[in-house]
Prior knowledge:
Strand content: 5-15%
Distance between the termini: 54 Å
Strand order of the largest sheet: 3-5-4
Radius of gyration: 15 Å
Number of helices: 6
Largest sheet: 3 strands, antiparallel
Structural class: alpha+beta
Shape: globular
Order of helices and strands: EHHEHEHHEEH
Amino acid sequence: MARSLLGATLSPMVALWLAGRCGDDMRMAAEVYARRGQGDVARQFLAAVGQMEAAAAQLSNEAVAEAVISVSGNAETEMTAVLGASELSTSEAAKRLGRTRERVVQMLNAGELLGRKVGRAWLVDAQSVDDVLEARRAA
């Protein structure tokens, strides 16, 4: 029987460190659980990563001293609130481009997409993604 867990409060610095150290492993764990048909567990892993990245982004924006990370929270809503309309997570950029998250990071490193790093995480310029999509349509 599943039970509700209390949320945890992390400083943006701790969230930045955790996202950098554990984010990729947590995404891989989510893929494993999804393949096993345990979508709820997979979504919890992805929500936690998104929330850690959102808290880490707040560190660079110097918006708040602490960020609340909770299992029951909505990572997409929190990411949108922090990133605004002009920035995307690498996962969201990957969805829009029809590519993997890893390919989006390669594109950022190669200068094919614009973005900024927050610790080890990338925030992708939304207009840059739109420009790549437009160039594909024109080709």
